[in-house]
Every structure is written in C-alpha cells, then in structure tokens.
TrEMBL record:
Domain annotation SAC3/GANP/THP3 conserved: ranges: 18-268
InterPro entries given in the database record: SAC3/GANP/THP3, SAC3/GANP/THP3_conserved
Species assigned in the record: Ilex paraguariensis (yerba mate)
Name of this protein: SAC3/GANP/THP3 conserved domain-containing protein
Domain of life (superkingdom): Eukaryota
Listed Pfam families: SAC3_GANP
Length: 313
C-alpha cells in the first residue's frame, strides 16, 4: 500500500517489527508514537485499496508501536488510550476480514490478527492493573475486559492462556458488576446452553459494536441451530412461516430464504405468495460458508454504533 507524502512517513517506516537490535536512540518516544497512531487512524476508512491491504499496512505498524512502548516500559493513562485504540483496530479487523472475498491469504491474516488481538488485550489488562491507584476502574475497562469472556465463545480452549473461572477471581468487583461484563457472561451462558432465542435477542439489544464484532462468527452457528430446532421440532403438517423465522433469527426474510437454502432446506410459496419452511426435512446440514452479503443481525442500533465506533479509532 502506497502512502501519500507526509511528515510522519519517515517515522512510520523508521522501525519494523524485525528490527531486533535497534539502538535506544531509534526507539520512538511516546509523543511520536501517538502521532503515528493518529496518522494510521486516518487511513482506516481508505477506499483506495481493499480492506485487507489497508489492514496489512496498519497491522505491521501498530505492532511496532506496541514493541516501542514495551521496550521503554512506558505506562500511564496516555498509553492505556493508545492500547485501547489498537485493540479496537484488531477487534474491528476481526469482523471485517471475515467479509473479505477473493484473497487466498485472508485465513492467514485473520489468524495473525487474532494472535495480535490476544497479545494487545493482555497487555492492556496489565496496564489497567499497573496504573490502578484506587478501587475505581477506567472509563472503557468494563467493555474491554468483557472481550476476554467473548473470546471464549464456541471453544473449550483457552485462547488467552487462562480459564475464565480463574481469570474472574482477579477481575475488579466493579467490572464484574458492570453491564458490559454481565452481558458477556449471559451471552456465553446462552451459547453453551444452546439457548438460541436469548442469545440472538440479547446480542441484538445490548451488544456494543466491538462486542458484536467478536460475537458475529458465532451468530451464524446459533442461527443454524435455531433453524435445525424449528425443522426437526415442528409438526410436519404445519409448515413454519418464513416471516416468523425471520423475526426469530432477526434477519430479512429474503436472507432467511438464502440461509435455509445454505442449510440444505427447501422453501415453498403458497398461492398468495407467502413463504413457508416445511418441517421434518431430513437433508439439513450446517452451512459450510459464511454469508458475506448481509449483516447476520438486522439492527439499526448496531449500524449506528458501527459508524460511531469507526470515527473514534
């Protein structure tokens, strides 16, 4: 990706992550690192290049920013803000990279982005603790702490090296009681119990945009579970109205039809044009592809939050 001339460009390209033996004089001070991140933020919504190209450029340089901060052992509120912005970059990239098509390197980029997200968020949590002077918490701490819980969705593994039950013991009580953390814990519980209705409704009603970005990969899985339950649990002589399924899944009816087709199910239309899902179909299968062409949850609230969030990167 080519960048237009700018006074910050030499600073951006000065260090790379492979520079293992840099002299202390080459490590950028905090003020320069902040200016560099501000500059990178202006490239975030670039339409001149595909998102994966923009991501790749910013990814490498935010990683070197974190390396410079680590080498200098800088702490403080200003550093916390920088880390929050970089974590936000990785969370939104986690969402956007899944929607990129036609690039064979996307899977690798997505894996590397998740790897750096877990490292950045771990460093952020350490900074919260290192700078804590009382029983208060930072303005965005509850939301960013909730990411730890949401990153455990759909997996028995420990993506950040520690089980949730042990991690909870070290979380400040104010964070544990926050609406952000209570939301994350409920969503995790609904997911593990297979309570698709509460999972979908709670996510649509309460998730912040950043929380949604982490949850979204599992929404398709939960919606497929809902379709499966409707299909196998329904009465064969009473096909399920597609408009009712649309409300349950919180998707447009046309998208529900595509989704059911992706699950191997047939839809039929009656004489007045109303569409139904015949139940007890035996060829149900979980969709093998991610549906790229629409939002998995139709929510004006989330769309507004997404627009707001991008401006604050």
């Amino acid at each position: 990706m080519e960048i237009p001339g700018n006074r910050l460009r030499p600073l951006l390209l000065k260090r790379t992550i492979s520079a293992k033996h840099d002299q202390a004089s080459n490590v950028r001070p905090l003020s320069v690192l902040e200016d560099t991140l501000n500059y990178l933020s202006n490239l975030w919504d670039s339409t001149e290049h595909p998102f994966e190209v923009v991501h790749d450029f910013i990814f490498d340089r935010t990683r070197s920013i974190r390396q410079d901060l680590s080498m200098q052992n800088i702490v403080g509120g200003q550093v916390i803000q920088l880390y929050e912005r970089m974590v936000k970059f990785h969370v939104i990239s986690h969402h956007k990279l899944r929607r990129c098509c036609g690039n064979s390197n996307i899977s690798s980029m997505h894996h590397l982005n998740m790897e750096q997200l877990t490292k950045a968020v771990t460093s952020l949590y350490n900074l919260y603790e290192a700078n804590r002077t009382s029983h208060s918490i930072y303005e965005n701490e509850a939301e960013f702490r909730s990411f730890y819980v949401l990153l455990h969705l759909g997996s028995d593994s420990q993506p950040m090296g520690e089980s949730i039950s042990l991690w909870f013991r070290r979380v400040p009580s104010l964070v544990m009681k926050s609406k952000e953390m209570c939301f994350a814990r409920r969503v995790l519980r609904y997911f593990r119990l297979g309570n698709y209705k509460h999972f979908i409704c709670t996510t649509e009603a309460e998730a912040s945009y950043l929380q949604y970005c982490i949850i979204e990969p599992y929404i398709c899985e939960v919606q497929a579970l809902a379709v499966c339950c409707v299909n196998y649990g329904g009465y064969k002589l009473n096909p399920y109205p597609l408009e009712d399924l649309s409300r349950l899944l919180m998707m447009k009816e046309s998208d529900v039809e595509s989704f059911c087709s992706g699950c191997g199910l047939q839809i039929y239309t009656d004489e007045i044009g109303k569409k139904f899902l015949p139940t007890k179909q035996t060829n149900f299968s979980h969709p093998k592809k991610v549906f790229q062409n629409y939002s998995l949850l139709q929510s004006e609230r989330l769309e507004r939050a997404a627009a707001e969030c991008s401006k604050l990167l």
